[in-house]
Amino acid sequence: MYAFHEGGGIPVVDPTSADGVFSLLWLVIALPLAGAAVLLIGGKYTDRWGHLLGTALPIGSFAISLAMFISLLGRDDNDRQVVQELYTWFQTGHLDVGMDLLYDPLSALFLLLITGVGSLIHVYSIGYMAHDPRRRRFFAYLNLFVAAMLMLVLSENYLGLFLGWEGVGLASYLLIGFWQHKPSAAAAAKKAFVINRVGDMGLSLSIMLFFITFGSTSFTVISAGAGEASQTTMTILGLLLLLGACGKSAQFPLQAWLLDAMEGPTPVSALIHAATMVTAGVYLIVRSNFVFDLAPDAQTVVVIVAVISLLWGAWIGCAKDDIKKALAGSTMSQIGYMMLGAGLGTAGYAFAIFHLLTHGFFKANMFLGAGSVMHGMDDDVDMRHYGALRKMMPVTFLTFAMGYLAIIGFPGFSGFWSKDKIIETALAENWLVGLCALLGAGITGFYMTRMMLMTFFTDKRWEKDVHPHESPSVMTVPLIVLAALSVLGGVMIAGDWIVDFLAPVTGVAPHEDPPLPALAITVIAVCVVAVGVALAWFLIGKREVPREAPQDVSWVTKAGREEVYGNQINDTLVVNPGRELTTALLITDKYVVDGVFTGGPVALGGFAGFARRVQNGFVRTYALSILGGALLVALALLAVNLA
Amino acid sequence: MSDVTPFVVLSGILFTIGCVGVLTRRNAIVVFMCVELMLNASNLALVAFAKQHGNLDGQIAAFFVMVVAAAEVVIGLAIIMTIFRTRRSASVDDASLLKY
């Protein structure tokens, strides 16, 4: 059953209890969780078959998700929210938190994305990690991640969501630092973890505020009572949730960890840092639509953050020579688009999720493709050492090309439909935001073409002892499947299917006419992209690519290589003042606080050192002091008796 | 009731001599004798005051002092003997190791 608040179009979560195939909901999480437990506890005894178990379990989850999805489609529109109450997680005072799972159109789509793309990446990892002695542990962490991510999108309350949120953070930390013998990987893992703390603080504060305001953290309760809270409360809640989303989704100003996170194995970058975990922030905002719909100021901030992030990420993507880092910049930029969609409110939620899904397909595809290239190039990530790989790796090239066409928005491919919708909605909302989104699309065309040219076209620039070769089929088959999804993902928008499907969660937007006809916007967007592509062709494709990155470049390139000084800004504003503060505190502690407490004893010790000189060992001195003491006593007695 | 003033004065003189001896002499034997002198001075004072008050309290106390003094002589002389044997000297200033 779903209902709307009177007046506003804000949907109320009002689920029915789970039966039939939906009673298997808990298994979706339990399967990968059990996999992680078996592989971690079983230790080296599971080395031989661990990767097979670790792959089979997410596939099992995918099968259940698919069955539930089909069953959900068979239901009436008004009957598409199902809740499964597993047990009371904890109960204290007025806080009663149940381990409840909510299955609705939004979580249904996420379930398919996480288990589907996740399974493909598990299969791919069998080949990619084949020579790694710690492969079993890798699969254990991947399973842990899948379980946590599913918990995140299935929980019916914010506390359960937070459990999954921290779970994916942990898995991300473990997997970024998977090659822990590399100091850079260990540092990157720590950096991701620390920056995510900032975002998590926002999310946990918002959960506390939810509890104070509504007496519960359940979506059902909060969405029903959303209208009663003051707008200030809602704005604060929205900003806190946005802070959480920024941390997890690498949005400005908490974006600096994502580029470093590429230290992890490539399947991790594909699954966690492109397709699923980093999009959790978008999920959080869309899921909390009942908050943001009542907080227009918070929505404005979401849009600003999104626009900054999408241009910032695109800028980085243009300048990086490391193929994974260029893709990471692109991820940040594309998530900026999703956030933009989510910030536009009811009109944009469905498109944000649509872009999230298509991006999950084509970006996972391209990351895995980049992994395949690295596999053939002895783990070299520098695109300046690639070139002309299309003949050596035909399958990788073709699948990567599908992803490429999808992300730049080539007409007919999945990214074309999803990005176009967001640009269109943004233009209808605010022309400046829309123009920025258009500009971003042009830059996307530029940097993706640059990547494509430097990797697969131009002259070959390999090291002498490198022999590029196509990857085994265990790696190419997932690529082919993802490439097909990248091409066909746009089918979800046919007849506005995804908009209607998500309406029970996101609400129905009043129809608003864009300033220009939709077709005109599409044509303009395609033209802008074409300009970007052509620019890349003239700047890179027509020239010789140097093997060493040239140093005499414009400040724009320099800034891009430095990730638009994100790290320097963090260092100046936070890290260095923090260090100085701790140094100051340390000095205060050592000399002021310790001084107060040790000062007394030290003074006493000094006095004792002086006073002990009285004990000089001469009997006659002692005798004199005894005489003096006796005289004193005698005089005192006399004084008392005579007085 | 008789006048005991001369005895008390004598006791004071003897005590003072003993005191000064203890404080100024270095020879352990002499110091020891001075201590004995002080004890006897106090005995004399006790007996004199007992005579003045007409009871036996002071005299009994004097007996106690004598007993203690005898015991002290036994131990004190033994210690001085031992010190002299090890150090070949009976100066109290030489035995000053036990200090800060």
From TrEMBL, chain A:
Domain (NADH-Ubiquinone oxidoreductase (complex I) chain 5 N-terminal) ranges: 89-139
Sequence intervals crossing the membrane: 20-40, 52-73, 106-126, 138-155, 201-223, 268-286, 298-315, 335-354, 397-418, 430-453, 474-498, 518-540, 622-642
GO molecular function: NADH dehydrogenase (ubiquinone) activity; NADH dehydrogenase activity
Topology in the lipid bilayer: Multi-pass membrane protein
One Gene Ontology cellular component: membrane
Location of the NADH:quinone oxidoreductase/Mrp antiporter transmembrane domain: 155-444
Places the protein is found: Endomembrane system; Membrane
Lineage: Bacteria, Bacillati, Actinomycetota, Actinomycetes, Propionibacteriales
BP terms from Gene Ontology: ATP synthesis coupled electron transport; electron transport coupled proton transport
The protein's name in its UniProt record: NADH-quinone oxidoreductase subunit L
Alphabetic keyword roster: Membrane, Transmembrane, Transmembrane helix
Automatic annotation (TrEMBL), chain B:
Gene Ontology terms for molecular function: NADH dehydrogenase (quinone) (non-electrogenic) activity; quinone binding
GO biological process terms on file: ATP synthesis coupled electron transport
Task performed by this protein: NDH-1 shuttles electrons from NADH, via FMN and iron-sulfur (Fe-S) centers, to quinones in the respiratory chain. The immediate electron acceptor for the enzyme in this species is believed to be a menaquinone. Couples the redox reaction to proton translocation (for every two electrons transferred, four hydrogen ions are translocated across the cytoplasmic membrane), and thus conserves the redox energy in a proton gradient.
Membrane-crossing segments per the record: 6-23, 30-50, 62-84
InterPro entries per record: NADH_UbQ_OxRdtase_chain4L/K, NUOK/Mnh_C1-like
GO cellular component terms attached to this protein's record: NADH dehydrogenase complex; plasma membrane
Keyword Transmembrane: yes
This protein's name: NADH-quinone oxidoreductase subunit K
Chief location bin: membrane
Family under the similarity heading: Belongs to the complex I subunit 4L family.
Catalytic function, reaction form: a quinone + NADH + 5 H(+)(in) = a quinol + NAD(+) + 4 H(+)(out)
Compartments it resides in: Cell membrane; Membrane
Description of how the protein assembles with itself and partners: NDH-1 is composed of 14 different subunits. Subunits NuoA, H, J, K, L, M, N constitute the membrane sector of the complex.
